[in-house]
């Protein structure tokens, strides 16, 4: 990895943005980290913790940063990214000139990567990529999804090493300038992540199955238990490790997950329908005392052990 020494601006200093800020600075990718946090309590916490060298305004962050990381809920990111690319066009940079004129340049070919870059780290990709598809500065945007996280949110949840050994999805990378993709690969290389390339539509299908349904299931299980067991002490006393690990995701932040589930609506609905069908098979087997059917279902499910250890 080359020694970039970039100024990195991170809009949203929560779990993902804050954790990126820690490691990008500690590991030498960023010479300076600028943070943007609109919530005054979270902004003060970010200052106190030291997640960024400076907590600055939105406009100041974009003006002063070489790479801007958009780490906000996906509904906000869809509106924000075209605005940031508009601001790129207003700046007198080689890449901005390329974006305005459409002429070929060294920056486009990857010879002189002197322009700014913006990336997002959101959990859905298709709507984001559509929002900027025809923007004249589209080549300066790289859409990514680092597959890491916890059930916690806010600056207090940020932690070093969160991304180590995990995968990072690059969506529709062919729409981005090669030099921009290369810089972002170096950024995620600093975070010890392995890149996976896919189109935005495929990304949203896969994440519906391996991530989004897990959260919906956890929310539903938490509601089921809370609705039936009114005595919170009984839940605490009787909950085993299995219950705790299954319902852990129900602690996740609503502001983040509502736009994810609505933007990926069609894929999430398809997965939910399949999940409901599997639950119906289990219910029917239990209802009819059909031990053979239960065994088949459980042993079929056991095949996951070959994939996840």
User: Could you name the ranges where pLDDT drops below 50 across 5 or more consecutive residues?
Assistant: 94-104, 106-114
**Overall outline:** globular
Distance linking N and C termini:
31 Å
Which structural category fits the helices and strands?
alpha/beta
Please explain how this structure is put together.
- By secondary structure, the protein is of the alpha/beta class.
- The protein has 2 domains: 6-198, Rossmann fold (3-Layer(aba) Sandwich); 204-306, 6-phosphogluconate dehydrogenase C-terminal fold, CATH 1.10.3660.10.
- It has helices spanning 15-26, 40-49, 58-64, 74-90, 94-101, 106-109, 126-132, 178-190, 200-228, 232-238, 241-247, 254-263, 265-287, 291-301, and strands spanning 6-11, 30-36, 54-55, 67-70, 117-120, 141-146, 167-171, 194-198.
- An 8-stranded mixed sheet has the order 3-2-1-4-5-6-7-8, with helices on both faces.
- The protein starts with 5 loop residues before the first strand and ends in an 8-residue tail after the last helix.
- The model is unreliable at 94-104 and 106-114 (pLDDT under 50).
Write the layout of secondary structure elements.
Layout (H helix, E strand, L loop, with lengths): L5 E6 L3 H12 L3 E7 L3 H10 L4 E2 L2 H7 L2 E4 L3 H17 L3 H8 L4 H4 L7 E4 L5 H7 L8 E6 L20 E5 L6 H13 L3 E5 L1 H29 L3 H7 L2 H7 L6 H10 L1 H23 L3 H11 L8
Parallel strand pairs: 1-2, 1-4, 2-3, 4-5, 5-6, 7-8
Antiparallel strand pairs: 6-7
What key attributes describe this structure?
single chain, 309 residues, alpha/beta, Rossmann fold, 6-phosphogluconate dehydrogenase C-terminal fold, eight-stranded mixed beta sheet, 8 strands, 13% strand, globular
